[in-house]
Design a protein that fits this description.
Length: 180
């Protein structure tokens, strides 16, 4: 998995303070997915949870995969959302492991990501590396040795899957990012 995604996952899953960063990011985020308040006025809210379902991630869970912790004080998932008025931000991360090979897990998620449009393979030297308005890019993200890193969606609504070999099986992170 890329160093950037690994660091992000580690920081968020340990529950370190990120409120200030999220508040800054949410200022230019897309409209929230939360339902509008039934009474006039400005609605706002925050969701923080150490659980992430398949629906939260917007991706199916790999059959037989188990959530894992890298460290005993670690959480296998984080679900964080912040919205107010027409602005919103959502970040969902979950970590899993499987006894299946990285190739098999990669095939499963490559097909699942097709639902969000063209899939970027950030391990491909031809993958786009520079930001262009309205398009995803890999920028500096690259998979770990022997792994895969896929992105699909559009800026403001992205799914990311990082896959890496672990012993005779596979560890992988599923990420959903909505916002700026």
């Amino acid at each position: 998995m890329s160093t950037t995604l690994s660091r992000l996952s580690r920081v968020l899953s340990r529950g370190l303070p990120i409120g200030a960063c999220v508040l800054a990011l949410s200022a230019c985020a897309a409209p929230p997915a939360q339902p509008a308040a039934s009474t006039p006025g400005l609605g706002a809210g925050v969701v923080v949870s150490p659980q992430a379902s398949s629906a939260d991630l917007g991706l199916p869970l790999y059959p037989g995969a188990q959530a894992y912790r890298e460290h005993k004080d670690d959480q296998p998932a984080v679900n964080f959302g912040l919205w107010g008025g027409q602005l919103g931000f959502k970040l969902v991360i979950a970590k899993y492991e499987s006894a299946d090979s990285p190739e098999r897990v990669a095939r499963f998620y490559r097909e699942a990501l097709d639902a969000y449009g063209p899939v970027l393979d950030c391990g491909d030297p031809k993958a786009p590396r520079t930001k262009q308005k309205g398009q995803l890019s890999c920028e500096q993200d690259r998979p770990a040795s022997g792994g895969r890193l896929y992105k699909a969606g559009r800026p403001g609504n992205v799914r990311i899957v990082g896959i890496e070999p672990h012993g005779s099986g596979t560890r992988f992170h599923l990420i959903r990012l909505e916002g700026p």
